[in-house]
Specification:
This protein is an alpha+beta fold. It is built from 19 helices and six strands.
């Protein structure tokens, strides 16, 4: 059985699908980076804030102030290099490092699609996406190949299947399927849309879209993998992502997914895209090398070990929530990096109380002095942010002269249309609690049950 799969993955395939993926991914990253800078978001998210929430284990990642623009310049130039296939290896490494570093600066801005871009950037480091229709291949015939082992395309396809299928599994829960939450909260506010606006006021529509979303995510990998259903699957991808782009402000992620899923199509389709690019940009050169891209056995084994380890991690990580005792949607322990997309709507209130243990005097904190509006919004509903800010306040007020200040939190959260309930145990001094992968037992238990994956 193993030999069968090995033979399948090593079978020669035309390199055009990987080349087109490289071009489209690089082009979208160029656009995304320019958009981020032109909208003033570098300044708003990374330069203006005086405090940044850190990922556990990545506390060493710091903001560079105005020099953050240099990071984005590196991201832009490396994305150009990826799209053109110029200095490809260097470009992919720099893109992965610079893009990921920017995302690690502040946990407040975590989004699944940023995580997805980092993952693809990492995978591209190890794939010969510059062996065909690239400046590198034109300049160096030794790396120009029309055929590559199938696994180079398969790893991208597999990653896309993981994203979709796990997003579908996450939607198999009682809130999503039997309460149409949170779509029942979000959709009525889209009343201004022509035709759809009226439909979104209907309760049956909320349930229909919830069930369709779940079935769509579960089915798309299989529809794209099989040739007979591939066109239908891609049409569904386009409809789904265009609709989500209309309904929700999620940037260019829908276009990334639409372009990425093209890699499931046969090489002949991608060769037509490349012919279009040749005519559009009047590119006359054609690579003459028809040899198969081969790598030494030692390197092949190292790559196999890397990809097996990587995908094992991707398949297991989303289920880490099962080691925690309370409701995932409530504590969000194990929520990130699990392809759980738009499953919860939370409204929250949080107030910090600083107590001087020597005098017994206390006061409430004005969050506006330390956090931006968006940071405050995320702080209200995310436990790890609440704890980190408590330690920041401890340090801040120590510097102000309070010896060993105590920090208590009063917090309430409303989850998916439920009445709000207290979130943090108000009797726990959070300065005595350290961040870890352990369960946050200073959170109060959820007073309901959500069944599902």
């Amino acid at each position: 059985m193993l030999e069968k799969y090995t033979t399948y993955l090593q079978h020669p395939e035309k390199a055009a699908p990987l080349a087109v993926f490289r071009i489209l991914f690089g082009g979208l990253m160029i656009f995304s980076t320019l958009r981020f800078v032109s909208q003033g978001w570098v300044n708003k998210y990374y330069i203006e804030p005086s405090f940044h929430f850190k990922y556990y284990g990545f506390e060493f990642v710091t903001a560079f102030g105005q020099y953050t623009y240099i990071l984005y310049a590196i991201t832009l130039l490396s994305a150009i290099g990826i799209a053109l296939g110029y200095k490809y290896k260097t470009a992919t490494i720099l893109f992965f490092l610079s893009f990921t570093y920017c995302e690690l600066i502040d946990k407040t801005y975590y989004l699944n699609h940023y995580y997805f871009v980092s993952i693809i950037g990492f995978l591209l480091i190890f794939l010969p996406a510059n062996c065909y229709f690239s400046i590198d291949a034109y300049r160096n015939s030794k790396i120009a190949f029309r055929k590559i082992p199938r696994y180079n395309i398969f790893v991208i396809q597999l990653m896309l299947c993981v994203v979709y299928f796990y997003a579908g599994l996450a939607k198999i829960n009682t809130d999503w399927l039997f309460k149409a939450m949170p779509l029942q909260i979000w959709l009525p506010s889209r009343y201004y849309l022509p035709v759809l606006g009226d439909l979104f006021q209907k309760e049956w529509m909320h349930y229909a879209m919830s069930w369709f979303g779940m079935l769509y995510d579960l089915a798309i990998p299989f529809l794209l993998l099989f040739k007979r259903t591939r066109v239908f699957g891609f049409v569904m991808v386009v409809i789904f992502h265009v609709l989500t782009r209309v309904l929700f402000p999620i940037g260019i992620f829908p276009y990334v997914m639409i372009c990425a899923t093209l890699i499931f199509f046969d090489a002949s389709f991608h060769e037509k895209i490349i012919s279009f690019f040749r005519r559009l940009f009047k590119i006359k050169f054609v690579e003459n090398n028809t040899a198969l891209y081969l790598i030494p056995n030692v390197k092949k084994k190292l790559l196999a070990t890397l990809f097996i380890t990587f995908f094992t991690f991707q398949l297991v990580l989303p289920f880490r929530y099962m080691v925690y005792p309370d409701e995932l949607f409530w504590t969000e322990e194990g929520y990130r990096y699990s392809w759980r997309v738009m499953l919860i709507e939370k409204g929250g209130y949080v107030q910090y109380k600083i107590v001087n243990p020597k005098t017994g005097n206390w006061f409430y904190v004005d969050h506006n002095k330390f956090l931006t509006e968006y940071q405050q919004k995320q702080l209200r509903t995310q436990a790890d942010l609440i704890l980190e800010f408590a330690h920041f306040l401890e340090k801040h007020y120590k510097e102000k002269g309070i010896i060993n200040p105590e920090v208590y939190v009063e917090s309430y959260i409303a989850l998916n249309g439920r009445l709000s309930q207290q979130f943090v145990n108000p009797t726990v001094d959070l300065t005595k609690v350290n961040e870890s992968f352990s369960h946050k037992d200073w959170l109060l238990p959820f007073n309901d049950t959500i069944y599902g994956f």
